[in-house]
Amino acid sequence: MSAELVVIALFAFGATLLGGFFALRFRDRLHLILGFSAGAVVAVALFDLLPAAMSVDTHTSVTIYLAVGFFAYLVLDRFVLIHPHGQMHQLHAHEHEHHEPAPSSRGIAGAMTLAAHSFMDGAAIGFGFQASPAVGIIIAAAVIAHDFSDGINTVGFLLRDGGGWRRALPWLLVDAAAPVVGVLSAQLFRVSPETLGPVLAVFAGTFLYLGASDLIPESHHHHPRAATTMMTLIGAGVIFIAIRLFSV
Predict the structure, then answer these.
(1) Does pTM top 0.85 for this prediction?
(2) Helix 225-246 vs helix 133-160: angle between axes, to the nearest 10 degrees?
(3) pLDDT: which is higher, 25 or 205
(4) Which helix or strand (DSSP H or E) is residue 108 part of?
């Protein structure tokens, strides 16, 4: 692996950790962090994953795979990861308990989904460099720009479901390492556009569900709607601007 790829992988790792530590430090403002995360997750799906899927697969199957990702996660959420909403107000109470509560399966599933997306981000960087260094650098800039939000999102899922920082930190490390592993894996094989398009579309559908059906309602629970709504819009705007700046 070239020195350029090593440096980019380290930047992605550091940006994710920095976002996660930010979320851990300011967990008393978790509803605002969740609001930002909601906008960022939806924006990544709409402005990053979906356009990327359509750029490599122009057929109508993209929308089919988008729906598959959305409704598959809905079924998983409703029947496997059953967990009630509205637990953010319990977080401060948990902080005073002797033992930290373990994050729920729902929070872990969200963190795993984000780690899988981060892995795909890393793989995209590697595949971009296979095409040309210029393409690889453009993709890397866009990935690193929203890796900070990925770290916030990962910790947000786990804190929202009652986990403490000791429980969140291992998953943050997993998410931070995922793009590094993705970059490495891209050196071992090639993925055809016919395969990559549907995979990206499925992730886009999953992120739309996580943001619109989970994070947005949870961020508004027992908190001022104006502030959290503004943070959601800011989160979406930051991702949109970052992608536009680094993808042209």
Answers:
(1) no
(2) 160
(3) 205
(4) helix 105-131
